[in-house]
Amino acid sequence: MPRSEPTPLTLLRRAHEAQVLDLLRRLGALSRAELARRTGLSRTALSSITTSLITRALVVTVPAPAEGPRGRGRPVGLLRLDPATGRCAGVDLGRVRVRAVVANAAHETIATASRPCPPHASWQHRTELALELLDELLGGAAQGLEGIGVGVVGPVTGAAERDLGVARRFGEQYGVPVLVDNNTRLAALAETVHGAGAGSRHVVYVRLSHGVGGGVVVDGRLLRGAGGTAGEIGHITVEPTGPRCQCGGHGCLELYASLPAVAAAGGPENDAAVARAGRLTGRMLAGLCAAVNPELLIVGGELARCGARLLTPLRTELRARTLSAARAGVRVVGERLGDEAGALGGMVLVRQETPALYGAPTGDAVALSMADRNAASADGCCTGPVASGSC
Amino acid sequence: MPRSEPTPLTLLRRAHEAQVLDLLRRLGALSRAELARRTGLSRTALSSITTSLITRALVVTVPAPAEGPRGRGRPVGLLRLDPATGRCAGVDLGRVRVRAVVANAAHETIATASRPCPPHASWQHRTELALELLDELLGGAAQGLEGIGVGVVGPVTGAAERDLGVARRFGEQYGVPVLVDNNTRLAALAETVHGAGAGSRHVVYVRLSHGVGGGVVVDGRLLRGAGGTAGEIGHITVEPTGPRCQCGGHGCLELYASLPAVAAAGGPENDAAVARAGRLTGRMLAGLCAAVNPELLIVGGELARCGARLLTPLRTELRARTLSAARAGVRVVGERLGDEAGALGGMVLVRQETPALYGAPTGDAVALSMADRNAASADGCCTGPVASGSC
């Protein structure tokens, strides 16, 4: 279902807010007059913006140093960023472990924690575990938290009971925007922005683990698709006459390149089993190179630890099946962030998609805000691909 | 090579311009005072913007109706859009025919023409043919033309001699921004915005013709990839043990679902040959559904005229190989715009990517402008995926 678009006026308003916040970040405390001069905004327009920023606790007023005679009119106070703002949390409700990460406004990880959980724990149980972790990391002081990005296992449509429930519970607890997405897709985003793909903008990430999943990053943003299931690349056919998969298809990559599949074929010590996994992963990736033309392919998950035994046949098959033009630019590398990638990706998502102090790192100054998500939810009842905490 | 990003101030400036233009479009002629009141901009900021719009011939001044006493200061004139602006041209330098289309500011096609050309004509010859067509369509009056989008056959990297040469020639002739892209990808864009996909935002288009190509549209925008080769979906492997393809791969879709392939297998009258083409096209599309999760698949090209004989096996294979979640939302339809799609797509591209009067139809008010392209070119010498006329 189409999501309603922000209006030009909303975009303009956000661009103005971003400009004010950017000036305060770079120049420290400023008077309203100075902000008006530097932004070119009228007093009325500026006043509306600063009032909103103060109400949202992004900006605080501080007394101006007394110097020279004061004129009449409103008291001269300076505006500056709230020093407690800008923290961001990422959570990964993984299959066997729950993780939480908190970063400061400078995008530095300031705290991290994890706890094992049984593979068949309910999402409610995982959520409560994660809330305990977050409480410890934040020391009870959630003030200044900008948002929480939560990774979950499996497709995220934004309408599923679990996705809405997870978003609601975190939202209730902290009163901030909550974005829920697939945890493997979030790992793709984190690897692109902070890991093996740092500096790249077009990336395909594949994770060879208990299942096979991944994520496609286009121009620095995660591709979610119409229904939020983009990146389910473990269920692309690689052997058309292969056996039936639990997804209903035949010959899916997951049947050859997951941990259980390799275990059944001799285990990770068996070169032939690992080579087959690599070759068929390369075949799948070759198809995506033709369709999406990434500059970088990142291979992660436990099987990636097999190194060259996996990657050499993968690269050989890739070369054999990729159009020369797309092949020319593409590199294959291992992942770098390891088990924290999913939680880190949650933070990246929040920074990209909420009206953050520091904007998206991609030069996109007008990222979709929670306000728009909420507006869309009011119309479409949370059918967007990302569940939000306020639904 | 990464393209330099517009700065927040450039984005802000463009948002202001878009707001001024939008007000003039919706409300007709307005005074500067009225524009200041409605935009919230200071006189100084607004003056800078209107001066630039007037210099660029997007806005003209007209005398205000005389009413009431005049105050002192600058003469009261009204600003309004230049009625001659907003025309846009699309060109398709196709394999056997060159086409040109011109639309007005209301996005209505006002003139169209085509001329056959031999399959082995040089790009220079095709370009001159297209310039003749455009001269006829424009009646020698290129004034008010916003830009030209040109479709060419084969991968477009933005650095190839042909791509640069085509852009330069059109740019010299008309002095407007020229964008060059693959003509099948442009057809995908046109079908998404004005054709079978109107209203959709996530679309995969496949064209079954002399070759097999296509385009992937994500969130209303054409996916180009890191090197500009995205959408070469005719060279995705569908039969891993199949014969060698001219691209260097084996078992590519084009070996089964192109006109020559079907001709060799019995011709378009032969049900089995057409069914095989449909089945293998469905297999390729199933993979893209998993990776990209489109809401709509558009099948075009001469083979699509086989109708149900092609589409029924295509849909059957798609259902058998697509993850249930992605399958739930996806529809398969035939193309609607026919042979003009490539030229129409050139116009859509220009409207989306140049700082147009009417902005992008996707709610993205700050589309990448030619100014940025040129800045990027100065650094990177036209290595971006789209060649521009000023290089």
Automatic annotation (TrEMBL), chains A, B:
InterPro entries on file: ATPase_NBD, HTH_MarR-typ, ROK, ROK_cs, WH-like_DNA-bd_sf, WH_DNA-bd_sf
Extract the SUPFAM superfamilies matched here: Actin-like ATPase domain, Winged helix' DNA-binding domain
GO molecular function, a single term: DNA-binding transcription factor activity
Q: Which Pfam family, an example, fits this chain?
A: ROK
Point out the signal peptide segment: none
Keywords (A to Z) from UniProt: Plasmid
Domain HTH marR-type, first and last residues per copy: 17-66
**Family designation:** Belongs to the ROK (NagC/XylR) family.
In Swiss-Prot or TrEMBL terms, this protein is called CRP family transcriptional regulator
Give the classification, highest ranks.
Bacteria, Bacillati, Actinomycetota, Actinomycetes, Kitasatosporales
